[in-house]
Amino acid sequence: MTSPDRQKLLWLQSGGCGGCSISMLGAQSPDLITALASAGIEVLWHPSLSQESGADLLELLQGIIAGETRLDILCVEGAVMRGPGGTGLFHVLAGTGRPMMAWIEALAMRARHVVAVGSCAAFGGISSGGGNHTEACGVQYEGAEPGGLLGEVFRSASGLPVVNIAGCPTHPNWVVETLAQLAMGEMDTDGLDPLNRPRSYTDHLVHHGCPRNEFYEYKASAEHVSELGCMMEHLGCMGTQAHADCNTRLWNGEGSCLRGGFACIACTHPGFEEPGYVFGLTRKIAGIPVGLPTDMPKAWFVALASLAKAATPPRLKENAVADHIVVPPKTREKP
Amino acid sequence: MSRRVVGPYNRVEGDLEITLDVGAGKVREARVSAPLYRGFEQMLVGRDPRDALVYTPRICGICSVAQSVASARALAALTGLTMPENGRLSTNLVLANENVADHLTHFYLFFMPDFAGEAYAGEPWHAQSAARFAAVKGTAARDVLPARAEFLQLMGLLAGKWPHSLAIQPGGTTRAIAAQERMRILALLHSFRRFLETTLFGDSLEAVVALDSDAALMAWLASGDPLRCDFTRFLLIAQALQLERLGRATDCFMSYGAYAESEGALFRAGVGEGVECLPLPVESIMEDLSHSWMEYRTIPRHPFDGVTVPAVPDTEGYSWCKAPRLGGRVVEVGALARQVVDGHPLACDLVARGGGNVRSRVIARLLEIARVTLAMERWAKELRPGEPYCSHGELSDSAQGMGLIEAARGSLGHWLSVRNGRIHNYQIIAPTTWNFSPRDGAGVPGALEQALQGAPMSEGERNPIAVQHIVRSFDPCMACTVH
């Protein structure tokens, strides 16, 4: 049932794991189908959701490129595979003999909005890790550098650059709410951060709402994954620097990486796949972590940290290295 | 005879292309191609082995935990760690959560919508099937998405998030469950059981796992309203379309064994021809590259010695997928294989009657949903709040390890070697690598290629429907296949 006022969305996958789609299928309250309907979005085709297969899809793609079918929102999930040697042959769209990168480019020229879903599509992500043998890049970025497949100056018909819903994977609501804003004409460049990520979730830090904040304040640190203490000092946690609202907008009902007992790896950031150090370990110089909160003077941080360490209550010291609360807060007894 | 290239397929994970030679109304030969190469095995070489826990889950968004578990197991071989009981139980719960959610996603969102399509518009059952199972618009999608999302809240509790968690570690899991959280896990499982018993099975899980033959299954179907649940709806369609005649492959089934119990496994490991199960000769696993777009094609290699160097696509090869073989043989993996190897009487009877086929694969998946959900209830009850979930230790600098586990779609293996603290080689064979492999050096087609031979298809058929059923009956994951 096509209706002229519904916003027509096409979703393609290339060099990625499909995890952003799978995450999005878990949207809750309301579920994905209801959320898309509420935003007036009609899915022309999505690899996991649609009835149509093969020949029907190819007809649809050709209709869009020929200008016969309107395309309001093009979502790309997964990196653009440019290799080997710029041929794009590492991903030839099945049934077409044509590299996926050529399809993405042609469709992007017709779309009112172009959305890169996930860190692979936004920046290259994991798909560009480990020396990037496959020449993977984002739709409009290569790592933190503008460019990618479409080039820095690209603007879709709406005048917006490619909207980078970065994350590995993306939270269902980052995607659903951004698509709704686009569909309802409520997204402009002010809604995007300097990496063209929706500010709705990147104006926050993973640190916000972290249940380990009291441990952070007193620098009571976990020494191993699974322990309750702050993971910044030893376990490589990027939560104080990573842009995302994972601890105020929880995952799968009540989770987040930090709540799950392991460190934030800043998966919404370009280049997260190559931290230059082992994931889950903190790089230090002279015992001081290299990556400190970005907007805090280093000397202050060090001074405050040593003061806080001196004042750490025994309760936090002990709980920090346990996997469950061993010393509860004191209850004031009646005199 | 004519040649048709069919793809892209939707409602499979990732991209897939199949070249079909068609004559006299049948598929004569099939060539299955995985058209995307990402190169995880190349990315991992030279890294710190611990990085594998970040990289390998990102091979696949739908089998992410399975990749984590295989990787953590391979790494565990580099330590002398013993996993605490809670770690074992929690790993089982997280992996089972993913596997059962995947089976459910496959049945409702990927497989059943084909029976709502226009190809069957003339069938007497089409109207009710379309109303129930049509993609997005059918009532089933609206029932299953909230139930699936609520079931996956177990991930929020046990693994932080899904997909792509780091909660699965060589020594256990990172999230200790408190006493009241265990109550929440039990409540979520109870709610999921209610969904299954009301909507999918129309009967208790215990009654489903007690079905011990095809005759018992058909008697159960006839014992009430044939449209009482989605399982019976499927059985009726399967009967009308004779789905048991579609998609027979090698009938040689393999399982690495699934879900560690305090002794042994919930589902045992082995290789079964028909129903006679033998121990698994894992050392005889070889990957053949003769029809893959890979360098070093001439000699099949064991994954510990495996090499992954992509070649520029040429006409000698036709897929990025390698061709794994067990002692030279093509095997089928997946829920049916797991249930047959484990000796479940219903699965064994189905295979004895008609081998691996579209109907038996789907039934085995639903049977497994019931069996694993029951096991999850038990594991959740066995968790001991306050006791440890994870042990910690150093990885040895130079060693080899393998992690052989069962993902939703079948046997998943990681083979890792470490030298001087760095990954020297990391090879992965995923379930769909087995099922959707290309031909090997002897010209023997892979499991899906065999399953497609003889499938009815008219030369002008736009989206050959029998081919679609056979492909989806394997629940392929193309993201894992090549990685």
Question: Can you give a write-up of this model?
Answer:
The complex is a heterodimer of chains A (335) and B (483). Chain A has helices at 19-24, 32-38, 54-65, 100-108, 119-123, 172-183, 199-202, 213-217, 298-310, 314-320; strands at 7-13, 41-45, 73-77, 80-81, 92-93, 98-99, 113-117, 136-137, 141-142, 145-146, 163-165, 284-285, 288-289. By secondary structure, chain A is an alpha/beta fold. Chain A folds into two domains: 7-201, Rossmann fold (3-Layer(aba) Sandwich), CATH 3.40.50.700; 204-323, Cytochrome-c3 Hydrogenase, Chain A, domain 2. In chain A, the strands form five sheets. Chain A has a five-stranded parallel beta sheet, sandwiched between helices. A two-stranded antiparallel sheet of chain A has the order 4-8. A two-stranded antiparallel sheet of chain A has the order 5-6. In chain A, a hairpin with a 2-residue loop joins strand 12 (284-285) and strand 13. Chain A starts with 6 loop residues before the first strand and ends in a 15-residue tail after the last helix. The mean pLDDT of chain A is 95. In chain B, strands 1-2-3 form a three-stranded antiparallel beta sheet. In chain B, helix 4 packs antiparallel against helix 6 (139-151). The model of chain B has no long low-confidence stretch (mean pLDDT 96). Chain B is an alpha+beta fold. Chain B is globular, with a radius of gyration of 22 Å. Chain B contains 18 helices and 15 strands. Chain B has one domain (2-482): Cytochrome-c3 Hydrogenase, chain B (Orthogonal Bundle), CATH 1.10.645.10. Chain B has helices at 40-44, 52-55, 64-76, 85-111, 126-133, 139-151, 153-158, 179-200, 205-209, 214-222, 230-241, 335-342, 345-354, 358-382, 431-435, 447-452, 465-473, 478-482, and strands spanning 2-6, 17-23, 26-33, 168-169, 172-173, 252-255, 258-260, 265-267, 270-273, 276-278, 285-288, 323-326, 399-407, 410-419, 422-429. Chains A and B meet through helix 1, helix 2, helix 3 and strand 5 of A and helix 1, helix 2, helix 4, helix 6 and helix 7 of B.
